[in-house]
Write a structure and sequence with these properties.
This protein is of the alpha+beta class. The chain has one domain. Helix content is 30%, strand content 9%. The protein has three helices and two strands. The protein has a two-stranded antiparallel sheet. The longest helix has 13 residues. The mean pLDDT is 77.
Length: 81
């Protein structure tokens, strides 16, 4: 079984710079919904996770680059038809 990893690149304002195909496939999003949007605005605001926003913004203040950040969250629309 091949595992695909969803990746996205954000700027220091949490605006989406790029995402990979696995991200679009996993979260059932289209390119037109992620171009230049802030992370918490995509997926009908399903990514509006206040604790994650605060954590990422705090991390950005301390470091210029965050390499390898992972979080666990259940997205209601993912995996449901």
């Amino acid at each position: 079984m091949v595992a695909y990893v969803s990746l996205l690149v954000l700027d220091n304002q949490l605006k989406i710079l790029s995402v990979n195909k696995s991200f679009y496939d996993t979260f059932k999003l289209k390119k037109s919904t992620t171009g230049g949007e802030k992370l918490y605005e995509i997926g009908e605001c399903d990514w509006n996770i206040h604790s994650i926003q605060n954590l990422l913004l705090d991390m950005i203040k301390e470091n210029n680059i965050i390499n390898d950040f992972e979080f666990d969250h259940t997205f209601n629309k993912v995996g449901h038809k």
